[in-house]
Amino acid sequence: MLRTTLAAIATATVLAAPVAAQDMDIVDTAVAADDFNTLVAAVQTAGLVDTLKDDGPFTVFAPTDAAFAALPEGTVESLLLPENRETLTAILTLHVVPDAVMSSALAGETVSVLTVNGERLTVDGRDGVMVNGANVVTADIEATNGVIHVIDAVLLPTE
């Protein structure tokens, strides 16, 4: 059922290069890519589409489908249930910073950034870029209302 839902949500368009996203907002950029199907489904389930289509600017640390698949079995399906919307929203808003932060601003630095859910993330740009232990595998995918940095793990709230 999850695959059917994700297939219905995802488009067949594949994001060819990060620069191609510059004419789309963060949500449309994620939909157009082929590696954010679970993230898009989660954003829709949490009711965050309109928020992430807003003017921003936003920085989104976007977990790949493989990052969601690495969570314990049944976790994603459970999070997508209506009764878990609050938990899902807390997880997703942990991935969003209310400002556009390009990787060049982080090079050689370790910084603490405040997320939309009120928690702080540690971004370490001294050897590549890591966010709370997740690797940034693709940086600086620009969108009309911010930037996406692709990460290889799902960040989980500490509270």
UniProtKB/TrEMBL annotation:
<keyword id="KW-0732">Signal</keyword>
<dbReference type="InterPro" id="IPR000782">
    <property type="entry name" value="FAS1_domain"/>
</dbReference>
<dbReference type="InterPro" id="IPR036378">
    <property type="entry name" value="FAS1_dom_sf"/>
</dbReference>
<dbReference type="GO" id="GO:0005615">
    <property type="term" value="C:extracellular space"/>
</dbReference>
<protein>
    <submittedName>
        <fullName>Nex18 symbiotically induced protein</fullName>
    </submittedName>
</protein>
<dbReference type="InterPro" id="IPR050904">
    <property type="entry name" value="Adhesion/Biosynth-related"/>
</dbReference>
<dbReference type="Pfam" id="PF02469">
    <property type="entry name" value="Fasciclin"/>
</dbReference>
<feature type="domain" description="FAS1">
    <location>
        <begin position="23"/>
        <end position="155"/>
    </location>
</feature>
<feature type="signal peptide">
    <location>
        <begin position="1"/>
        <end position="21"/>
    </location>
</feature>
